[in-house]
Design goal:
alpha/beta
Length: about 280
């Protein structure tokens, strides 16, 4: 049996949370958004032999971006499986307000870090006057930061590396393998910046989310991305994940994890990628 800790997934309760990004009238205007704009609970995380789900990491999903602790409270009330949670927190807030909200989040036992989606605004947000001090505070509290931005954005990576140099104990987890694409020019920039970030021992990378740029990506392409991450980060700093329920655009939860485990590596290596590294990084 292959044990799984899924280090990147989302659960939704559309009656309790706001989830503005899932509403049909709001961006992103994906034609297949309706397929994921539904209730998803931990009961939907079903795996069968040879896979066994031991735990998961819930990544903030826009439940309430103004009062992000509400999402954590909902999770801790409803989830029975072992899990950790990543809360939403704006890294550009003035430090006193950031600190106040961080303290509130730390009252919840499942919280191990925060995410603030950077994406196309990465350079501006990483260059904000408050960001460096806030991330330093995060590191001081021994919490991690989920980095969601395209690594092809060299200017933003420059800003990020400046922060890493000044806050050497900040634990970072790159989401969705840094958003690789099939575009040749972007691929070159993505790989170059991947190599730059891999030099820092506090930076980890999660491989998932390929369906966000290509609903019909091939398993061969997925495995190529994983291989490049392993080549640069090494076996101990790569985690495989699902990005459920967005992964349903491409395949079932079972199929997503089968593709993750059917890599040309031995069983010990597969177990590290699918379980041990996530257990260590997210403090299970």
């Amino acid at each position: 049996m292959i044990k799984i800790i899924d280090p990147h997934l989302h659960l939704f309760d559309l009656n309790k949370g706001s989830y503005q990004w899932l509403r049909p009238e709001n961006p992103p205007f994906w034609p297949d958004k309706h397929l994921i704009a539904k209730h998803f609970s931990e009961q939907d995380l079903t795996l069968s032999s040879p896979l066994s789900l031991s735990g998961f990491v819930h990544i903030e999903a826009g439940f309430d971006n103004e009062q992000s602790w509400r999402e954590i409270a909902w999770l801790e009330e409803t989830c029975k499986r072992p899990f950790r949670s990543i809360a939403m927190l704006d890294i550009t807030l003035p430090k006193p307000l950031f600190s106040q909200q961080l303290e509130k989040l730390m009252h919840y036992q499942s919280v191990v870090g925060i995410r603030h989606i950077l994406d196309d605004n990465a350079q501006v947000m990483l260059n904000n006057q408050h960001t460096g001090a806030n991330l330093a505070l995060l590191a001081d509290k021994q919490l991690s930061f989920e980095l969601q931005m395209p690594l092809a954005n060299t200017s933003a990576v420059d800003n990020l590396i400046t922060i890493i140099h000044s806050t050497t104990d900040l634990m970072l987890s790159i989401n969705h393998a840094g958003s690789p694409t099939a575009d040749k020019k972007q691929q070159i920039a993505w790989l170059d910046n991947l190599k730059r970030l891999a030099k820092f021992s506090t930076v980890f990378i999660k491989c998932s989310g390929y369906e966000m740029t290509d609903r019909y990506y091939s398993t061969n392409w997925q495995h190529k991305i994983i291989a490049l991450c392993l080549e640069n980060f090494g076996i101990s700093r790569v985690m495989l994940a699902s990005n459920f329920p967005l992964s349903l655009w491409h395949g079932s939860y079972q199929d997503t994890w089968l593709a993750n485990t059917e890599l040309p590596y031995n069983a010990v290596l597969i177990q590290q990628l699918c379980f041990s590294n996530a257990a260590q990084f997210y403090k299970f």
